[in-house]
Amino acid sequence: MRQTNQRRHHSHQPSPQHRHYTLIVWALVGLLALPLLATLLYSLASRWGATMLPDGLTLRWYLELWGEPRFLAAFARSLLLCFAALALSLALILPLALVAHTRWPWLDKLMKLLMLLPFAVPPVVGSVGLLQLYAGGPLPLVGTPWILIACFFTLTVPFMYQAMATSLKAIPLRDLLDAAHLLGASTPQAFIQVILPNLRNGVLVALFLSFSFLFGEFVFANLLVGTRYETLQVYLNNMRNHSGHFTSALVISYFFAILLLTWMANRFSRSA
Amino acid sequence: MRQTNQRRHHSHQPSPQHRHYTLIVWALVGLLALPLLATLLYSLASRWGATMLPDGLTLRWYLELWGEPRFLAAFARSLLLCFAALALSLALILPLALVAHTRWPWLDKLMKLLMLLPFAVPPVVGSVGLLQLYAGGPLPLVGTPWILIACFFTLTVPFMYQAMATSLKAIPLRDLLDAAHLLGASTPQAFIQVILPNLRNGVLVALFLSFSFLFGEFVFANLLVGTRYETLQVYLNNMRNHSGHFTSALVISYFFAILLLTWMANRFSRSA
Amino acid sequence: MAFLNIQCLHKRYADQTLFAGLNLSVERGQLVSLLGPSGCGKSTLLRTIAGLTDIDQGRIELDGHDISRLAPQQRGIGMVFQNYALFPNLSVFANVAFGLKQQKLDKALIATRVNTMLERVELSAFAKRLPHQLSGGQRQRVALARALVIQPRLLLLDEPLSALDAPIRRSLRQQIRSLQQELALTTVFVTHDQEEALTLSDRVVLMHSGEIIQQGSAENVYSAPVSPFAAGFIGHYNLLAGAAAASVLGRSTLSAIAIRPEAIELLDTPQADPRWGTPLAGRILSRQLLGNIVRYQVQCAEVTLICDCLNRSAADLRASGSAVWLGVLQAEVRTLAA
Amino acid sequence: MAFLNIQCLHKRYADQTLFAGLNLSVERGQLVSLLGPSGCGKSTLLRTIAGLTDIDQGRIELDGHDISRLAPQQRGIGMVFQNYALFPNLSVFANVAFGLKQQKLDKALIATRVNTMLERVELSAFAKRLPHQLSGGQRQRVALARALVIQPRLLLLDEPLSALDAPIRRSLRQQIRSLQQELALTTVFVTHDQEEALTLSDRVVLMHSGEIIQQGSAENVYSAPVSPFAAGFIGHYNLLAGAAAASVLGRSTLSAIAIRPEAIELLDTPQADPRWGTPLAGRILSRQLLGNIVRYQVQCAEVTLICDCLNRSAADLRASGSAVWLGVLQAEVRTLAA
């Protein structure tokens, strides 16, 4: 072990001939961070016209935002949709992943293929297709939150399944089940006492990521339901011609909420 | 080896007590495939009103679509944008990944964090932020394809970096470089002759997936550039109130093109 | 009547026959090793005994009762796996207590029995640790305690030592053997390591391609292999046939013969002895110091023989190229079935 | 003057001292093994010789020239890695040709030299295969060919055999040794396996915590360890101190002593002999058949001794509990530094 570590350490030593790579790296980091910093500044600016820097700083836009009932309602709707979709996802995908890893490996292969589907059917295509299908048929789902929950569920499948598959591969599943059986546990007992606790962290991380992703979903929400059940993202879109400072405050609020979630996901994945 | 295989085989044997899971599985597969099948049927239907099945089948909608110059132009624009973004991505991310895996492991950790950014800043939030930033400033980028290329590049970073990191982890990078050095190769020679060929398949798969993803991107394209540089997805959105049959033909055409790409990506990843 | 009795076991998977009428019996309190190369079916056989792999035909009896249709939970069998198979989310204590908890025993009773067992494997101090905080040897001792605490009628060990380093392997080997003898526990031990099988077992069962090739005491299996496969797998035998065999034996022979390298005496002078008859003249080709053994390659006329001697003292070592006389212990020359 | 000369090597990493003034020299054409437990610094030492790890202070001389400031490319050193480090995208031929291609040699010349080398390692038939289509042993032979074809001044082997199975390990060991002797190639071989070091080397260098503990011929290092660490690492020595040592020696002693188990003769009668003096009375506690060796644990008064005998014949085996006399070869009793 120690040797491997040492070997790795040696490779870290900066060497002068590679110093020019630093430029590339920091340029990239800057490229990614610049829009965010500018938005932050804009959301705090009392007025920012033709000058290089804003005239003054204020929290006005934030107070206005968090006092707006339409914003709060959209926020609540987004939360509700996300939680419903995630609960559905957990209830369906968990047994599926367990079966795929203990009984039917072909199912695992099938799921790996299905996970490419979101790439093959991008949201706008999918929602147009769904609009055609459900708009007139016997089930008038378009415009109701139900269709959105179904869509969101589909979107979480790859995350949830991948997270569970990874967690299940990380433990000697077959041997743990065999050992539990020989010690007198039934299959459900073995799953509950031995397998599920080992999936907990992986699944929590997937839930956090899925939540961030769904919370930010816009295309399906806008095209399928639109203003009839306004989610946070749709609200944000509708507000984009309002004050720029106001929307900047929204973006920054949003960003910090998601950052918090990401940090929590990271903490769980580290303790895993 | 043989024993391990046998052991795995035994676990495949279907057991009657688990047969009821089949239902769940096929229900899920059906749930995912149904909209697509319905769209396919709709795109081939000459008329489909209140009856259970369409009146007749026709290729009319496909011919109409592929003869439409606005569609072909949008198609070409989408292709151009994707290729430009991917070329930029390859040129920047490849050296970055190499450096992160040979010299500066902290850079790898930083990239892993940055890869969570697309979750933290969903497209609609990002584009609203970018609109604020670039609409009035010294660089009037909004409405030009340039801002879209930059956005698309950002979107590909996680795919490309992840693919390269995985490929680099799959080979004993440090030892291969050491071996090449001791055999007289300089660092650039070693990269070109020994490291890059081993990344080829992984990078190709990432390129295919990124392409599928970018080609389907709608939010940035619509909000940042819109009809001023109409991409395929924006065109599709604008056409959604046109004939349902026509858009269905579009969706199916699109789906098969992406399926082809996915299949190619799969072939490359298998030969890897 | 044997304690464990496997009769006429048949098992196919896909187009492959794994067992075709295999029979095996183990006496009460014995430790029997299933020894063989990977893929010989030894682990699968162990899993059929545990009920983890089902059988096509045949009968498995434990203590006079047919267990072949019972679920693994009902067989009363303890098993230790190569990769430990400890429950990663449970502490050492909870791992060992797992089987007793399934029996819904009283909490105080569970604690007493678990603590006693942990003391036995010298892990009392580690009761609160999680498996990933232990070394490989410690983990395998936890796995052993977990299997033993339920007081199984039969203990199955599936290559329990092969993931461990040599020194730990040796000490855990001792510990397993003394626990097994103390508890008089009938045990089946699967291994691909001939030294492990020889040192541990009351009986060694040599398997190849799903069949039992040879079985008997360690001494018997080691010193009297029945086939070239057995001779090749279990030691560094000199295998000779035809003219080569005849020249070493001093008489013509139709069968192949096997001579252990340590059954050849290196002599300074051609002294005759009833044990080896007339010595053979030879010349040392090479010498290898293997530790406590010195291995010589000796050229005898047309034949090259391997001879092992104890590494008594550096002064006794013979140089390459020097002439020696070889006394082949006639009683230790084995004639093999073709 | 030695061919490879390492003088006063210093190396720290972070807060850890890896080497503090290490010296080592290797004669031309010798094969020297660096032997030690993992973490003793043997691999790091090898990498400093190759130039893959830089040093803080000290001098590394090869054939009279200081190479310590040269890049790895300029040192003319061949190296074989534990994980083979074959280029996965290149065929066997292209892997071996890699070093020659960097020298921009003529294509025909490259082909001739590569083919000759492939013949030498018996892989001509595999020239067009990719590394992943080869077995572990074949891969390591390709790696060896790749290192040798550039005609290095020095060959470094970093645990080249430890990823391989026992039988392949043994045969490749032979092949490495005979190639090395044929080419008279100065070689440094890193291993943690004492048998490997003893069988292969002209000189064994035993390392511990970045220091050289002992060096010498295999026979010397094996039979005369200088410290309890050396005795424990290199064999199954009986280590005794104080009263126990005195009772075995028959005289009082202040130092610890080490006796190899094969340097104790098991006798049926208490016959005296100049080699062992008066035999000690003992009783056999246990017997282990290790294959060609039978290992007895013998209780002698207060002391338990391990004795190894050749497994000559089943009839010669002694039962547990039987009385024996032990003749401890006095010349082989080692006194250890504290």
Please sum up the structure shown.
The complex is a heterotetramer, with two copies of chain A (272 residues) and two copies of chain C (338 residues). Chain A is mainly α.
Strand-helix topology:
The complex is a heterotetramer, with 2 copies of chain A (272 residues) and 2 copies of chain C (338 residues).
Chain A: H1 2-12, H2 21-44, H3 60-66, H4 69-102, H5 105-114, H6 117-120, H7 123-136, H8 145-169, H9 173-182, H10 187-215, H11 219-225, H12 232-238, H13 244-271
Helix pairs in contact in A: 2-13, 3-13, 4-5, 4-8, 4-10, 4-12, 5-8, 7-11, 8-10, 8-11, 9-10, 10-13
Chain C: E1 4-13, E2 16-26, E3 31-35, H1 42-50, E4 57-62, E5 65-66, E6 77-80, H2 92-102, H3 107-120, H4 136-148, E7 154-158, H5 166-183, E8 187-191, H6 194-200, E9 203-208, E10 211-216, H7 218-223, H8 228-234, E11 238-240, H9 242-249, E12 257-259, E13 264-267, E14 280-289, E15 293-300, E16 303-310, E17 323-328, E18 334-335
Parallel strand pairs in C: 3-8, 3-9, 6-7, 7-8
Antiparallel strand pairs in C: 1-2, 1-4, 4-5, 9-10, 11-12, 12-18, 13-17, 14-15, 14-17, 15-16
Please give a handful of descriptors for the protein shown:
heterotetramer; A: 272 residues; mainly alpha; MetI-like fold; 2 domains; elongated; disordered N terminus; C: 338 residues; alpha+beta; Rossmann fold; OB fold (Dihydrolipoamide Acetyltransferase, E2P); six-stranded mixed beta sheet; five-stranded antiparallel beta sheet; 9 helices; 28% helix
Protein model, in words:
The complex is a heterotetramer, with 2 copies of chain A (272 residues) and 2 copies of chain C (338 residues). With 272 residues, chain A is mainly α. Chain A has 2 domains: 2-44; 68-271, MetI-like fold, CATH 1.10.3720. Helices cover 77% and strands 0% of the residues of chain A. Chain A contains 13 helices and no strands. Chain A is elongated. Mean pLDDT of chain A is 72; it is low at 1-18. Chain C is of the alpha+beta class. Chain C has 2 domains: 4-226, 3-Layer(aba) Sandwich (Rossmann fold); 236-335, RNA polymerase II/Efflux pump adaptor protein, barrel-sandwich hybrid domain (OB fold (Dihydrolipoamide Acetyltransferase, E2P), Beta Barrel). In chain C, β15 and β16 form a beta hairpin. The longest helix of chain C has 18 residues, at 166-183. Chain C has helices at residues 42-50, 92-102, 107-120, 136-148, 166-183, 194-200, 218-223, 228-234, 242-249, and strands at 4-13, 16-26, 31-35, 57-62, 65-66, 77-80, 154-158, 187-191, 203-208, 211-216, 238-240, 257-259, 264-267, 280-289, 293-300, 303-310, 323-328, 334-335. In chain C, the strands form 4 sheets. Chain C has a 6-stranded mixed sheet with strand order 6-7-8-3-9-10, with helices on both faces. In chain C, strands 13-17-14-15-16 form a 5-stranded antiparallel sheet. Chain C has 9 helices and 18 strands. The mean pLDDT of chain C is 89. The interface between A and B is large, with 73 and 72 residues.
